[in-house]
Design goal:
Length: 161
């Protein structure tokens, strides 16, 4: 398994191959998946974290079911751009996944993704209880949507060359 930049991943993606977004938390993993055209991120049910081996198996079963060819994982960088303990934990999770899969991971700066997800859920008049259940997958969708928009931008730039 490789850790790639989005720019390195883009040329290897074939039409009709979805990618997944992950929002890694201490208790849950928020999931989203792109459509086949890689234009829209859609939230999927949250995975409850148990222990790494079981989390990895569940995540890879999800990837197989959805035919995912890459993961975009949110990197929780501090607002000042520094890396705190959650960044280290996210990088460690990706390193541990290296032994389990060849699916590449792309780190994506997730600053404010949870805030944006919560605002969207509030605007949709989702109750506080349901927001708590959906926030991680909504954040994963924001992370993935940002990456999908960047992929679209890269494709337009490549087409202009």
């Amino acid at each position: 398994m490789a850790t790639l930049t989005l720019e390195d991943l883009a040329p290897s993606l074939l039409p009709g191959q979805p990618i997944a977004g992950l929002d890694l938390g201490t208790k849950t993993i928020g999931l989203s998946v792109s459509d086949l055209g890689r234009r829209l991120a859609t939230p999927r049910p949250v995975l409850k974290r148990v222990k790494f081996t079981q989390d990895a198996e569940t995540l890879l079963a999800f990837a197989a079911k959805e035919k995912v060819v890459a993961f975009v994982i949110g990197l929780p960088v501090n607002m000042d751009g520094s890396a705190g303990p959650r960044v280290q934990a996210t990088r460690a999770f990706v390193r541990s996944m290296a032994d389990k899969t060849d699916i590449p991971f792309v780190f994506w700066d997730e600053r404010l993704s949870t805030v944006a997800a919560e605002r969207t859920l509030i605007e949709m008049d989702v109750s506080r209880k349901k927001r708590a259940e959906r926030i991680d997958s909504a954040a994963a969708s924001f992370i993935l949507q940002g990456a999908l928009d960047r992929l679209s931008s890269l494709a337009r730039a490549a087409g202009a060359d």
